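Recap slide: Glyoxylate reductase/hydroxypyruvate reductase, sequence and predicted structure.
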Amino acid sequence: MAEIDKPRPAVWIHARQKDDPTQGFNPEFCERVEKHFDIICHKDLVANPILGANIVGALVRGSRMYLENTLDLLPNLKIIANNGVGVDHIDVKKYNQLGVKVANTPDVLCDSVADMAVTLMLASARNLIPGVKLAMGSEPVQELNQNWLGNDVCFATLGIVGMGGIGFKIAQRAKAFQMNIYYHNRKRRSTAEESTVGASYCASLEELLPKCDYLIIACPQTPETVGMFSEARFKQMKPSATIINVARGKIIDQEALYTALKNKTIKAAALDVTYPEPLPRDHPLLTLPNIIISPHTGSATVETRRKMEMLMLENVLAEVEGRPLPSEVKG
Ligand code: 8YV
C-alpha cells in the first residue's frame, strides 16, 4: 500500500516582515525555520483554521501574544518559544497544565541589555540628550554655559537590583568604570563571582538604596517585584541618585516616580521600559526635565536578535525531536 505523505509540522508566527514590516519576522530567519517546519502566519490560520492541526510550535515576540485568542485552533501545540527572556506576559503555568512547554531566550541577550543599562546611566549622568539638543537643535547658537555640568560615573556607587545574567554583565562593565558596586538579589552569588566583578551583596533594599548614586533594575517582573519601587523606596534613596530600569516598567510605581522626580526626592531616571509602551503623549512623566526614556531597545541589535531567533528555533527543534529544551521556563 502506498505510504500516505504526512504533512510537515508547522510553526505559528504572527506575521512575516513583508506583511508586517515593523512586527514581522525577517526573511532570513523564516528561511531557516522553513528548513524544518512550514510557517503559518496568524492571518492564514484565522482564514483557514484547519491549518492549526499541524502547528506544533509558536514563535512569539515580546508581549505580542496574538496567540492567546486562537489557542483552541492549535490542538497539537507542544511549545511556545518566546523571543525574549522575560515571560511575564505568558501564563506559563496555564500552558504547562495544558501540556504546552514554554521556552525563552536567556544568556544570548545579556551583553546587549547590559550595554543599554550603561548607555542610559552615562546618557543621564552626562546630560547627553539636552546636550545633543543644544549642539544640533534649532535654538539660536550660543556659547556653552561653562557652569552646566554633568556628573562622573567613575568612582560613583552603583546598586544593581537583580544579579542574574544581565545584572552580572552590568557589574562587569561597572567594574571597568571603577565604580563601587553593590547588589541585591534573591540568591547571593558565590564569593568567587562577587570578587570577579568586585560586587558586594546587600541582603535587603533598605541596606542597598541609601548607598547608591546610580541604581539599575535588572530583575524579572514577578508578583513580588511589581511596584517594588514605591514612594517609600524612593525616600530611602539619595536626593542625588539616578534610577535606571532595563527590566520591566511595572517594577517601578510610575506615579511614585513622577512625584519623586518632581519633588527632587531623587535626581533623575533613565528608563528603557515603561507601562504602557510607549507612554501616551500626555503622560505626566514626559513633562519632566530629569527623565530620559528609550523605547524598550535593550536587546534590539542585529547580532542579539539573530541569536535570540536561533535559540527560539533550537527550542522548538529540541521539543519535536524529544530532546531537553535548551532554555525551558517552568510555571
Ligand atoms: C523583548 C525583552 O522580549 O528579553 C526580554 O525580556 O524585554 C526584550 O528582549 C523583545 O523586545 C521582544 O522581541
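Residues 10-106+301-329 form a domain with the Rossmann fold fold (CATH 3.40.50.720).
Residues 61-62, 83-86, 109, 296, 298-299 surround 2-keto-D-gluconic acid (CB under 6 Å).
(End of recap.)
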